[in-house]
């Protein structure tokens, strides 16, 4: 049985990981961007208050021909909400369409979905009363499924999106909102693959060195004016945990840390992974930060300088990453405000329909999402007079009758109201900003979440709306942002860096490619997949170019851990059970074979070393029966994977991926047959 174990495990390892031919060398995981220059725009904001701007973010719309309710509800709810929110910008951060078949297995572009998106957005723009130039819709991985060439016949994003229609053709676009006191710089970018494969192996962002250089240039466009206050916000589709490094090893984190970004807004993950998909990035030194593989929680570590205004305090390079959820199922929208350089936001859930009133407190800041630079209000660069007021934006479709600010003390174990004060609309405000005076020193406390702020609003229709209880700290101590295991899995793990270490935990030989599939929407030659990515013949380069890494991990790793490794363990236990049962039969018959007379003399006596429980298990063959069930489960899982891949990449299992399709079931079947054959031969003797 030793030979059986060795042969079967070797066969499984040979088909476990698809390796590229050894004679070729790899190149970048993505080619450079199209070469179009970045487009810069500047918007002047008039009226008061002087230093307050708000924008709206929406993400992962996933308009689908199979789910028309997504577009219908978006049209009805979002257009109405924008009409009374009146933001300066509307940022749509990717996955505008779904690009999936009804069974979710075929992933490529569908022009009908894009036509629907264009019509819905035209109606939303009209209902909102905003100028179309205020909308920025960037490409997500679903908008790139099966798109071989940007600008080609299957690149419907360039044809139907607002960015495409406004000739924002570059990979990077920026807009600066100019107030009387500061510049608010928003930089959006498209980091999807330059040649978009079908899903599921199109999951990661692939910023190239050229793209990173463009982002770096856009974020530094106002650095030549050091006296001008600048708040920097970037937006894209992919979280940084799902963004690969460039060919030179640079990452988006490196660029953001370098420019002291205030916030990065993204989508992609959806609310199903959790509501705390927020992550604080920090580094005391620029070097090696992006090499970090794990981050155990989303909140920042309290700094010893938080409560001091010393000029000798060590500066912290930091920024926040805020994933916002999705419209697809959660019907989520975010309003983000920048008030005096401080950023606050509220995420709204429209699952129950449209909302007539929305509340966004802008000061004091939520202690869960503050930056070190804005923690201690007494040390801030903002006008100290602004700290003398509680501030909140109130957006309502109906006239407001009253606004109350309430502060609760949670230290006794329950909420005790310690302050209730009426808020007044700020005169001359171009938005509904309400303020109320307070004594900030009265709420200094070492706990970051002892005091909670809530705003209550009543409108002329008699409706009452209250904001959530938000913790705040005037002492500069950040509150915690706890992650569950799913949130840690998708936000705290740097999957681009983890993929290869996970693979090389197993020492595997090089073998031929795994399978050949149709990776584009239509009309292109097939590509073959290896563990390093896809290789397609359309790249006319002297060396092979591997695209879609680490995206291919969504195929490779599940196959390894849910099919190959369980199959190996099953084979090993089947072999061990075979040996135990063989010894059991020999002990019962008191037969001795030449292979056993050296070591098995003692076990030749009936029942000498086998307990009654073991005799029952061995006699009934319960272990083998259980292993047969496990083998069926592994084979069924493998069968479902094969069906999904057949549909996703239009493959025939016999022609395009025979080793992947048949090796594991055949090896399991051979092991079961071989061990059963040995039992029969022993029984007959």
Radius of gyration of CA atoms, rounded to a whole number:
30 Å
How many helices? 13
Q: Which runs of at least 5 residues are low in confidence (pLDDT < 50)?
A: 13-17, 19-36, 507-511, 591-596, 600-608
3D shape? globular
What structural category characterises the helix and strand content?
Answer: alpha+beta
- Distance between the first and last residues' Cα: 19 Å
Lay out the secondary structure.
Blueprint: H1 2-16, E1 39-44, E2 52-58, H2 68-85, E3 90-93, H3 111-128, E4 135-138, H4 156-160, H5 162-165, E5 172-178, E6 182-189, H6 209-219, E7 229-235, H7 252-258, E8 263-266, E9 278-283, E10 317-323, E11 332-339, E12 342-349, E13 357-363, E14 389-396, E15 400-409, E16 416-422, E17 424-425, E18 433-437, E19 451-459, E20 464-466, E21 470-472, H8 485-492, H9 495-503, E22 515-517, E23 527-530, E24 533-536, H10 553-589, H11 612-620, H12 622-649, H13 658-684
Parallel strand pairs: 1-5, 2-3, 3-4, 6-7, 7-8, 8-10
Antiparallel strand pairs: 2-11, 5-6, 9-10, 11-12, 13-14, 14-18, 15-16, 15-19, 17-18, 19-20, 19-21, 22-23, 23-24
Helix pairs in contact: 1-10, 1-13, 2-3, 10-12, 10-13, 12-13
Region (Disordered): 21-41
Transmembrane segments: 498-516, 552-576, 654-673
Signal peptide: 1-24
């Amino acid at each position: 049985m030793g030979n059986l174990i060795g042969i079967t495990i070797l066969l499984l390892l040979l088909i476990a990981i698809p390796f590229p031919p050894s004679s070729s060398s790899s190149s970048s995981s993505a080619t450079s961007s199209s070469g179009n220059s970045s487009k810069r725009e500047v918007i002047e904001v008039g009226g008061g208050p002087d230093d307050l701007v708000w924008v709206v973010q929406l993400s992962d719309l996933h308009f689908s021909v199979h789910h028309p309710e997504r577009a219908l509800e978006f049209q009805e709810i979002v257009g109405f909400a924008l009409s009374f929110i009146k933001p300066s910008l509307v940022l749509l951060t990717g996955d505008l369409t779904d690009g999936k078949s009804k069974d979710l297995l075929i992933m490529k572009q569908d022009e009908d979905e894009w036509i629907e998106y264009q019509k819905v957005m035209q109606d939303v723009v009209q209902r909102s009363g905003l100028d179309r130039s205020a909308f920025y819709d960037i490409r997500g991985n679903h908008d790139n499924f099966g798109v071989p060439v940007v600008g080609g016949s299957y690149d419907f994003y360039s044809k139907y999106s607002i960015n495409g229609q406004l000739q924002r053709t570059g990979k990077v676009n920026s807009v600066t909102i100019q107030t009387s006191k500061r510049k608010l710089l928003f930089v959006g970018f498209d980091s999807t693959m330059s040649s978009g494969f079908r899903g599921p192996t199109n999951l990661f962002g692939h910023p190239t060195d050229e793209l990173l250089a463009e982002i770096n240039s856009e974020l530094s466009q106002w650095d030549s004016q050091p006296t001008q206050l600048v708040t920097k916000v970037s937006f894209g589709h992919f979280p940084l945990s799902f963004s690969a490094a460039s060919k030179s090893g640079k990452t988006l984190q490196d660029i953001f840390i370098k420019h002291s970004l205030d916030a990065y807004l993204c989508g992609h993950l959806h609310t199903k992974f959790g509501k705390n998909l927020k992550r604080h990035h920090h580094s005391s030194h620029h070097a090696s930060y992006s090499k970090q593989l794990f981050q155990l929680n989303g909140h920042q570590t309290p700094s010893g300088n938080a409560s001091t205004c010393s000029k000798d305090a060590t500066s912290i390079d930091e920024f926040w990453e805020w994933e916002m959820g999705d419209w697809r199922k959660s019907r989520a929208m975010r309003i983000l405000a920048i008030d005096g350089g401080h950023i606050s936001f509220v995420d709204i859930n429209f699952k129950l329909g449209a909302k007539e009133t929305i509340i966004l407190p802008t000061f004091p800041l939520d202690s869960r999402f503050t930056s070190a630079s804005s923690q201690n209000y007494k040390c801030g660069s903002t006008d100290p007079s602004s700290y003398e007021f509680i501030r909140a934006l109130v957006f309502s479709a109906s006239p407001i009758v009253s606004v109350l600010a309430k502060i609760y003390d949670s230290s006794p174990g329950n909420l005790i109201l310690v302050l209730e004060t009426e808020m007044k609309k700020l005169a001359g405000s171009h938005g509904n900003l309400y303020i109320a005076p307070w004594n900030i020193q009265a709420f200094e406390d070492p706990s970051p979440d002892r005091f909670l702020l809530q705003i209550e609003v009543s409108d002329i229709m008699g409706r009452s709306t209250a904001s959530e209880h938000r913790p705040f700290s005037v002492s500069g101590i950040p509150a915690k942002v706890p992650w569950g295991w799913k949130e840690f899995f998708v936000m705290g793990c740097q999957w681009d860096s983890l993929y290869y270490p996970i693979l090389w935990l197993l020492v595997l030989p090089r073998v031929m490619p795994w399978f050949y599939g149709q990776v584009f929407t239509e009309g292109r030659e097939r590509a073959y997949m290896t563990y390093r990515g896809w290789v397609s013949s359309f790249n006319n380069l002297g060396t092979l170019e591997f695209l879609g890494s680490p995206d291919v991990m969504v195929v490779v790793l599940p196959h390894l851990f849910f099919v190959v490794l369980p199959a190996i363990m099953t084979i090993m236990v089947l072999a061990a059970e075979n040996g135990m049962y063989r010894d059991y039969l020999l002990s019962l018959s008191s037969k001795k074979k030449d292979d056993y007379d050296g070591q098995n003399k003692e076990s030749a006596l009936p029942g000498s070393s086998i307990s009654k429980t073991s005799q029952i298990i061995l006699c009934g063959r319960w272990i083998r029966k259980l292993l047969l069930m496990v083998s069926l489960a592994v084979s069924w899982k493998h069968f479902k994977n094969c069906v999904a891949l057949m549909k996703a990449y239009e493959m025939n299992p016999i022609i395009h991926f025979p080793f992947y399709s048949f090796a594991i079931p055949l090896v399991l079947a051979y092991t079961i047959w071989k061990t059963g054959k040995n039992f029969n031969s022993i029984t007959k003797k």
